[in-house]
Amino acid sequence: MAARTPAAQGFAMPAEWDPHRATWLAWPHNVRDWPGRFAPIPWVFAEIVRQVARGETVRLLVKDAAHGAAVRRLLARADVPLDRVELHRIPTDRIWTRDAGPIWLTRGGRRPDRAIARFRFNAWAKYPDFRRDDRVPERAARALRAPLLPVLRGGRPVVLEGGAIDVNGRGTILATEECLLDPAVQVRNPGLDRAGYEEVFREVLGARRTIWLGRGIAGDDTHGHVDDLARFVGPRTIVLCREPDGRDPNHAPLEENRERLEGARLAGGARPEIVPLPMPAPVVFDGQRLPASYANFYVCNAAVLVPTFDDPRDREALGILGELFRDRPVVGIHARDLVWGLGTLHCLSQQEPEAPER
Fold first, then answer.
1. Reduced to 3 states, what is the DSSP secondary structure of residue 319?
2. b/e for 154-190, b at 16 or more Cβ within 10 A?
3. Strand ranges (DSSP E) for 205-303?
4. Mean pLDDT throughout 64-77?
5. Which residue among 179, 241, 300, 347 is the active-site one?
6. 3-class SS at 158?
7. Which tops the pLDDT comparison, 57 or 108?
8. pLDDT one-digit tens code per residue, 128-176
9. Under a CB-based contact definition with an 8 Å cutoff, are residues 259 and 211 in contact?
10. b or e along 299-334 (b: 16 or more beta carbons within 10 Å of the residue's beta carbon)?
11. Any catalytic annotation for residue 347?
């Protein structure tokens, strides 16, 4: 890493529940991501935009002016407050802004007080079409005239998706070994080991302590993103998905992750409080197990948006998260169609934080 790392300059990645200036989303357009089931996706997306726009600006990525005009017409029909929606002509390959969008850092008392960490994106080391997505952070920085801080390790750019990590904004980060340390499957950064990632997290994101979990959930196209299984909901509190059915492929890895968390320490030495979150019954379409998880919620200023799956456990998950987030409503968003694209609410959103108070 360079001598003047972002952390050395006072930058860090804040928690998702800290105040936002905006949320970045990309309008769905790639019908191949929802083969045979694309028709409802724009309407589900419009409801997401409507809910987020109640409390902050939505910076919405569109292909061009004609595309933007069509999107605005659809949003108007869905009763979205258009004065809270900014259209940015930034073309994308897909709409998973959590992974390809700008990862924002903040610092208090100094200008500039916000910057974008320039991680690279390579479509989860799996797909060939990612060139547009990879350019989103630099185009976002140009649009907002924000500093763009390159992230290098040994002179090479570091690949990192936002869904591969979760932070509490107080020095601790969650990640999985399956996603970042597998030496053979979907390798993002060949040769970058555990210590190397921890150094990146410390020097770029301000995370002094990394808690490594094991494997992710069944059906996850990303090979183990942490935002489908464990999330910070407070400085010391983590929700962790639990599957009590021993026959389900999620049972063993989630139990192992529980054991890891029970032995973990946060930055500063405290043990985390672990709150179990149910898993929905398996969601299968066209013979494929999909990565349906209540942990893929998104915390915006006006609400906590939680994916729901027409499942009796929806109510239980909403109730648990409602008890944990007392400062904003918890809102269910129908995601049974959305998850056919192999992601839901957290996967498609990326927060832009407010600068911290001076």
1. helix
2. eeeebbbbbbbbbbbbbbbbbbbebbbbbeeebbbbe
3. 209-213, 230-232, 237-242, 273-278, 284-285, 288-289, 298-299
4. 97
5. 347
6. coil
7. 57
8. 999 999 999 999 999 999 999 999 999 999 999 999 999 999 999 999 9
9. no
10. bbbebbbbbbbebeebeebbebbeebbeeeebbbbe
11. yes
Distances (CA, A) of 241 to 29, 101, 232: 31, 26, 12
Three-state SS at 179: helix
Tokens 């360079």 correspond to: 2
Residue 3 has pLDDT above 60, yes or no: no
Average of pLDDT values for 36-62? 98
Q: Which amino acid is at 75?
A: L
Output b/e per residue, 75-91; b: 16+ Cβ within 10 A.
Answer: beeeebeeebbebbebb
Return the bridge partners of 114, or none.
Answer: 106
Peptide bond into 253 cis (omega under 30): no
Mean pLDDT on 71-98? 98
d(CA 322, CA 318): 6
For residue 166, what is the enclosing H or E element? Answer: strand 166-167
262-265-266 Cα angle (round to 5): 125
Alpha-carbon distance of 165 to 180, in angstroms, equals 10
Q: Which residue has the tokens 């991680």?
A: 119
> In Å, what is the CA distance from 180 to each residue of 3, 159, 174, 229, 334?
24, 10, 11, 15, 30
Under a CB-based contact definition with an 8 Å cutoff, are residues 251 and 153 in contact?
no
Average pLDDT over the chain, rounded to an integer = 97
pLDDT at 1 over 60: no
Q: Tell me, what DSSP letter sits at residue 320?
A: H
Give the tokens for residue 130. 């990612």
Tell me how far apart the alpha carbons of residues 235 and 226 are, in angstroms, rounded to a whole number: 17
Enter the DSSP assignment of 39: T
Q: Which fold has domain 20-353?
A: L-arginine/glycine Amidinotransferase; Chain A (3.75.10)
> How far is Cα 177 from Cα 223, in angstroms, rounded to an integer?
10
